[in-house]
Design a protein that fits this description.
Layout: H1 7-16, H2 19-28, H3 36-44, E1 47-53, E2 59-65, E3 72-75, E4 78-83, H4 91-98, E5 101-108, E6 113-124, E7 138-149, H5 183-186, H6 191-202
Antiparallel strand pairs: 1-2, 1-5, 3-4, 4-7, 5-6, 6-7
Length: 203
């Protein structure tokens, strides 16, 4: 990982005297293979933040939620997770298709701890894992380039109040969000969603 830091990062490390600390962190916490501890932490999460970049390098960040275990560690170098129905913009998926570069941040807010993971991603609507995720549209697979734990001192301690009722569950049909029923939005929905709104209104 000799090129882990870029020149601008090195410049700021030198300004604040942290170059030696940064180099030690590469040796101590930065790694490119998922450990047993990493796997247990990642697969226990019910959410994470996903950052992606488009072909011009412009970033975006998105919240991804599901049931605990919706992110799977397939082996020491690979994780996979589903992409469910969203707002129709497909920014994350489009960026994955465009550049493949992703960053994931996994956080435990109740017992402050976090892991950052960077890698190369692919997306597929034909992935064999798709059938294992109810109502998923695509599966994203990420090959790890590097990952590391972060100091948890600034993580605000919080408790989950309620699990989202919109997370797909095989026990019931996922409800439509209210914003899809707004008249102006309804007119431009995909046909399947529009038909469902019409059916629900008819009772």
């Amino acid at each position: 990982m000799n090129d882990f830091y870029n020149p601008e990062q090195r410049k700021w490390q030198d300004r604040y005297g942290t170059r030696r600390l940064a180099d030690l962190e590469i040796k101590v916490i930065v790694h490119d293979t998922i450990t047993a501890e990493d796997k247990a932490f990642i697969e226990a999460r019910d959410m994470f933040f996903l950052s992606t970049v488009d072909e011009s390098g412009w970033p975006t960040c998105s919240y991804k939620g599901g049931d605990p275990g919706f992110v799977r560690v397939l082996d020491g170098k690979t994780i996979a997770f589903p992409m469910y129905n969203g707002n129709g913009m497909y920014m994350s998926i489009g960026n994955v298709s465009a550049s493949g570069r992703v960053g994931l941040l996994f956080i435990d807010f109740e017992n402050p701890h976090r892991i950052r993971l960077h890698g190369r991603a692919t997306v597929s609507a034909e992935d064999p894992l798709l059938e294992e995720y109810h109502e998923a549209e695509q599966i994203v697979r990420v090959t790890v380039e590097n990952m590391f734990i972060n100091c948890p001192r600034y993580i605000h301690r919080m408790k989950k109040v309620e699990h989202s009722g919109y997370v797909p569950n095989r026990q019931c049909r996922t409800p439509l969000p209210d914003w899809k029923k707004i008249p102006a939005v309804r007119e431009v929905l995909p046909e399947s969603d529009r038909n469902r709104v019409d059916a629900e209104e008819k009772g």
